[in-house]
Write a structure and sequence with these properties.
Length: about 180
């Protein structure tokens, strides 16, 4: 017996009814037993529901709502990555010259400086993947410093550079995380 997909206005996904439950096209969906998105009436299961202050919404609706907060373009991601790489390269080189205790004290503010420079250069535009781009660029700068140390181009304290990598990257990436979770 072939099932016809159910159509709900406001949803781009397909739904099927079986055994009195409505199943969506997501894998592992336990099926909706009457729970609906309060914004558009789409049936949602407990796994696909996102709790808000006024009721439950689907993950798709939550993602559409999150898109209102993001205004970065692909060019902004490029500028973000280049800025994070250059600033992190200089900060990492400076901190890798220090003793361990000083590296531990200065790494967190250095991560804050990197994130502030990125925010200013990108004119405070926010993108869904800005944190990941900043983290990848900073990790790449640490790898470049490790390569410089390995070939003998620069004398660095390896442990201080490792402290910088973990602490500063964590601080910089956490600044760009948006509080909405889906």
């Amino acid at each position: 017996m072939e099932q016809k997909p159910l159509v709900f206005e406001g949803s781009k996904r397909e739904f099927y009814e079986q055994d009195g439950k409505i199943y969506c096209d997501r894998r592992g969906c336990p099926g909706s037993e009457g729970l609906r998105d309060h914004r558009n009436g789409v049936p949602i299961c407990s796994k696909c529901a996102v709790r808000t202050a006024v009721g439950y919404i689907s993950k798709d609706t939550a993602r559409e709502h999150q898109n209102l907060f993001f205004n970065a373009t692909p060019g902004d991601y490029l500028i973000t990555g280049i800025t994070a790489f250059v600033v992190s390269l200089f900060a990492g080189f400076f901190i890798a010259q220090l003793f361990l205790f000083l590296a531990l004290l200065i790494s967190a503010p250095a991560g804050g400086v990197v994130s502030e420079m990125v925010a200013r250069v990108s004119r405070r535009k926010r993108g869904r993947y800005t944190g990941q781009v900043v983290g990848a660029a900073m990790a790449l700068s640490v790898l470049v410093l490790l390569l410089a140390w390995f070939i003998g181009f620069a004398r660095l304290n390896f442990i201080s550079l490792g402290i910088y990598a973990f602490v500063a990257i964590s601080v910089a990436v956490s600044r760009f995380q948006l509080g909405l979770r889906i």
